[in-house]
Structure formats: C-alpha cells, structure tokens
Amino acid sequence: MSSLDGDVSQNGSLKRVDALRALAEIEEFDFSRSLDKPPRTLNMERQRSCDERSMNELFGVPSPSPRPSSRAENNFRLSDHLDGLYSPGRRSGFNTPRSQYGFETHPSVAEAWDALRRSLVFFRGQPVGTIAALDNNTDEQLNYDQVFVRDFVPSALAFLMNGEPEIVKNFILKTLRLQSWEKKIDRFHLGEGVMPASFKVLHDPIRNSETLMADFGESAIGRVAPVDSGFWWIFLLRAYTKSTGDTSLAEMPECQKGMRLILSLCLSEGFDTFPTLLCADGCCMIDRRMGVYGYPIEIQALFFMALRCALLLLKQDDEGKEFVERITKRLHALSFHMRSYYWIDLKQLNDIYRYKTEEYSHTAVNKFNVIPDSLPEWIFDFMPVHGGYFIGNVSPAKMDFRWFCLGNCIAILSSLATPEQSTAIMDLIESRWEELVGEMPLKVIYPAIESHEWRIVTGCDPKNTRWSYHNGGSWPVLLWLLTAACIKTGRPQIARRAIELAETRLVKDNWPEYYDGKLGRFIGKQARKFQTWSVAGYLVAKMLLEDPSHLGMVALEEDKQMKPPMRRSHSWTF
Fold this sequence. Notes:
By secondary structure, this protein is mainly alpha-helical. The chain is 39% helix and 9% strand. It contains 21 helices and 15 strands. The chain has a three-stranded antiparallel beta sheet. Strand 1 (120-123) and strand 2 form a beta hairpin. Helix 5 runs parallel beside helix 7 (227-244), helix 7 (227-244) crosses helix 10 and helix 10 runs antiparallel to helix 11. It starts with 22 loop residues before the first helix and ends in a 20-residue tail after the last helix.
C-alpha cells in the first residue's frame, strides 16, 4: 500500500508539506499524483504562483516564509501504513489578528473560536469534548447539553489543526471506556462494540465528584443505536495520528481492541447478499424517520472510510492480521457495489428509464428489479448533462434518488468515488448551486418530501416538514466536508464561494443549527443557536483553505487495487 502521508526524510523525521502554496495553485493541484511520489524531503522554497505574488504585491504584504515543523522527530511504527499528507498540528493563524498569509482574518473567525472554547466540557479537570449547543435563550435542553460523538468531529479537527490535540486524545480515551459499558435497552443487550451516541458529565456537589452518563440509543428519539459513532471514532483516531505523528495512542491495546470490536459488528456474517450495511431509520446524522432505512449512502460511505482507516491503524499481530484480511475483502466488494449500483449520471438515468423488469437469472441487467415508473419526476430536470452523484439508497425494487451531501462528500474524501466520479459530483454542485447551496450552505438532502409522501415517510413528523431540518434543511456544519472535498478535487473556488456566503449570516444569526426554506433563507424554526458543530465546521473549512496540507487528516488517496467496474456498452449492470 502506498504511503499518503507525505514526505519522510532519510533520518525518519517528517517534514510538513508546504502549507504556504497559494490557493490559486491548489486549483491546479493534483492531490493523488503528489501522494504517489516516493518519500523525500520537500523543497520548502517552492516558487510562489503568479497569483500569490501579484496579490502580495498589490496589498504590500511581505512574502510568507516557510515554517518548519516544530514537532520533534517521531518514530513511526505505523508510518509505513499511514496514508495521506502528514498534517502537523501547528497553531493556525486564527489565534492572532492576522493569518499566516498576512491578510486580515474575517471577523467571524475570532467569534467562532470564542464560541468553540465556551462550549468545552471538562471531566475531572480535563477537557473531554464540546457541548452540542450553548443556547441560553431556551429552557428546553433536550440532549443538546451533551457531547455527541458525531458532533464533536469538526470540533476535534479544529483543535487538531490549531495544534491542540490533548482534548481529542481525552475524548478518544473517554469514549473508549464508555464502549466497554454494559449496553441494554429494555431486556435486550446491544453489541459489545457499539459506541455511544453521546455522553454527559454529571456533577455531584454533595460528594464533590463527577461521573459520566452515556446514551447508546436507549434515551434517543426512536431508541435507535448510532451506527455512525463507531465509524467516526475510528476516523478521529486516524486524524489524531495524522496530525500529531504520535502512533502510541492507536497502538494501545485498548484502542486496538476498540477498533476490533467495532469491526466485529460490521463484518459479521449473516443473511446479507450485499456488502453494504443494513440499517434502521435514524441511525446517523439524520436521526429521525426520513426514509433512509435499508442501505443509506451516509452509512456506507462512512463504513468504507472507517474500514480504510482501520486497515492503516491495526497492528500486524495475529488478531490484527485476521481483521486486515477480512477488511481487504470487504473493501473490494463494497467499492464495486457502490460504484456500480449507487452511481447515477445522465447516461445511467436514461438506462434505468428503459429498464425491463421481472428478469430472472444471473444474466439479468436490472438486478434489483427496479420499476422505471418509480423514477421521481424531479430527477429528470435535476440531472445535469455533466455531473453525477451517489444516490441515497439501493435495495430490492427500491432506489432513493435523493441527494445526500454528507455521504457524497465522504465518498470523495475516502476515495470510494473514483477521480472521475469525484469530478462529476463537483460538477453537479456547481450546476445545481441554487438547489444544493442557495443562500446558506448546504442542503443535507435534496429535494424535500412533502404532502402525502411526507405523511407516509416521516409519520407526519412536525420537525421534518418540507425544507426544514433533515427534510431539505441547510446545515452550515457541512461546510468543512464540502471544503475538504473541493480541495481534494482541485476546486477550492467552490468552497470559497460557499464560505463567503455563510459568513454573511452565521455570526449575525448566532450560529444556528440549520436553516429552513428552499434557499436556506430562514433560521430553522426549531434550530438551536450557538450550535457547536456549526461553529467548528466553519473554522475547519477556513483552516483547510488557509493550509491545504491539513487535508491529510481527513482524506485518503485512491487505492489502485480497487479498480472501477467495467461497464457494459449498452446497459448499466444492475
């Protein structure tokens, strides 16, 4: 397996990829090609692009001088297996009035850091996470006063990019301890590897003590276990290792066991005929009934990402080797399945439109017996000539053609999407900017379901009315995922445009959880203010644009062994 983590000098010390390359240069940057180069010491004195020179000269700003990594030499026992750019956790320029490029930072940045630090949660004197929301204008806390695993991810990335890894390490270890707890809903015991959806610090003033209380789904709306928590935990463990160069955390027996327990849940054999994971509604970010039961793209993309991260982090001992073999087989099957059956573009849409049904035998083209009349009317106008995406769900006689932002962005970052598919997803976002971005990035799902379909699919959910919340609402937290995907595909101008759009509203609106309306014009009717992942998502997006070498924390290059499927000349194999 090729190393993605950049450039290693002969004495073993890791050199930071030149973070000072101009953003104009990034637009032409071939991410995967640079990662394929053999390890060497980078020439830190790269010539600046014409755009960077002209901008600096225009504003009278001195040229940024390269800053060597402040990290001591690291002994990487897992380094031969770690891919992606080495992303040193140095402090970003956002702690100071001016960024490292010499330009004034946007006023929203200082506000965001202040809000993020106020959201910190401490346990016995140590920071262990960030609260979901710090909205003091509402008496109804629900579970927004807890630390959610998925919600903490952008906060963790922000602290890592700012050179503050301790809180991330504390979070990883505390949630790992919670994983070992007995998990029971009514009289049923959950799997040993299930990670909590969230936890809360309880203070006992009488005994002057603190304890943790975890929720594994037994208190959640709908009582659904969080399938995505374990995947995000593995993702964060890799991000921490990438950022710090410290492999000792991942190599701890407890972390190795934690990964194996999560993987055991996902790789267990059963009645499945597909390599995808069968899930209930409400098991991920979309944590209410929204018709995502079955094989949702968000879970499959996160599953793929977690498998690839685990493959890099597992030790090559007897237990580790067994899992490595199982992971490798599953990755090949999963990539083929997703690239073959979830991908849609104009040609694929036309093929489905012409499908025959009731085919029997292994030579069937319409393998899932999808009825062409089930194609929604909106997709014919939505699909551009150039562009495509992974649809929401595929199962027998069912295809969910809705756009899911998180799943498609993770597909790009994990290289579940081929380079051609990644480019097509970016083309779609540009072509359908008004629908997917509008006045506030980004639509979590498109389009909204309404009327009779809304009543049937959501059970008349008053929170998921059309163009609200998960039903077509706009979520600022998704900015970091879009920005990372844009940088990986060499299209940072798309992210820059979205961030500038968000900056016109976020601080003024006090960092809402989500926005409502077709264009995302209105603050969500039940949206919490000072939603922490809205704050952190914005910060991570800004820091990724400032220093694209941070991309190594969250992105993986394409595995050349997982080749895209061969397509038939006249039909889409289904």
